[in-house]
Amino acid sequence: MVLTCPTHEQSTALPSNAMKTRVKLERLLCTFTGGERFPSELVLCNLADTARRNSHLGSSVVDQDIATFDALVRKLTIAANGAGSARVGGDEWLFLGTDGRAFARAALDEYALTQPYRADWSCRATKDGEERIVDEVVTTSLTRTARFVGAIAASRDELESLAGRLANRIWQAPVATFVLLEDLAPPRPPRWQCVAAYPARAYYCPFCTNADFEWTDGDNAVYSGDATCKTCDASLSFDDAGGREAACAG
Ligand SMILES: [Zn+2]
């Protein structure tokens, strides 16, 4: 296997998964100034449910999450003598060292955080000059954590294959723990979410209480967006701003 530093690689074609894996591995191996040791444990980790945290808390909070975790990975890599690590994606890191489990435990000790959270959705509706507002609220919690999946590499030649397999399977890993690749099993629904609970009542029209909408704007991943009620023709604007305010204050 020929490895070059990714900054020297030139290609105009879209990278394949194999190429992406190789570039990620190269980023990791560039961090070893004295050479890797084998056997070692290759660990892939990512921040859990980043898209939802971004939707609820905003990109500046997630940017801070990434900066915090990146600094933590660097610190733990230095503390683990002979280890290496690199950020290999937006919220994804590779670590190579003799004790992946200890690395994951130490990272979680500092990074994992559960805060009180007020999950709500509100709807401001207008129809025939009349305005109605509903606000459905639940007091819950919002968790910041990560996933870690690892595998033993007996030699450098195994790293590329292992890195690809870790990347293909990390979505199956439970949060807030370290798991070996060989022990991974498909997660049982429901899929883990950083927000522990949402209001029991999904959004509805404040005038007719039906929930058949023509969406005109917004992101249906969380509670926000504009719509017209197909039943009574009210104009509806949904938001979850209260949840954001509560989380930022906390
Ligand atoms: Zn309606």
Describe, in plain words, how this protein is organized in 3D.
By secondary structure, this protein is an alpha+beta fold. The chain has one domain: 2-Layer Sandwich (Alpha-Beta Plaits). It has six helices and ten strands, in the order H-E-H-H-E-E-H-E-E-E-H-E-E-E-E-H. Residues 1-10 and 241-250 have low confidence and may be disordered. Zinc ion (ZN) is lined by residues 205, 207-208, 210, 229, 231-232, 234.
Short description:
The chain is of the alpha+beta class. The chain has helices spanning 17-29, 50-57, 59-79, 100-111, 159-169, 241-249; strands at residues 40-47, 84-89, 92-97, 113-127, 130-144, 146-153, 178-180, 213-217, 225-229, 235-239. It has one domain (34-249): Alpha-Beta Plaits.
**Could you give a short account of the major beta sheet?**
5 strands, mixed
* CATH class label: Alpha Beta
pLDDT averaged residue by residue: 89
Radius of gyration over all CA atoms, rounded: 22 Å
Shape type:
elongated
Low-confidence stretches: 1-10, 241-250
Number of domains: 1
Strand arrangement across the biggest beta sheet: 2-3-1-6-7
Strand content: 25-35%
Q: Are any ligands bound, and if so which?
A: zinc ion
CATH architecture: 2-Layer Sandwich
| Helix and strand run | HEHHEEHEEEHEEEEH
CATH third-level topology: Alpha-Beta Plaits
- The overall strand count is 10
Q: Report the CATH superfamily.
A: Reverse transcriptase/Diguanylate cyclase domain
Helix content: 25-40%
Calculate the terminal CA-CA distance, rounded to whole Å: 50 Å
Distinct helical segment count: 6
Helix-strand category: alpha+beta
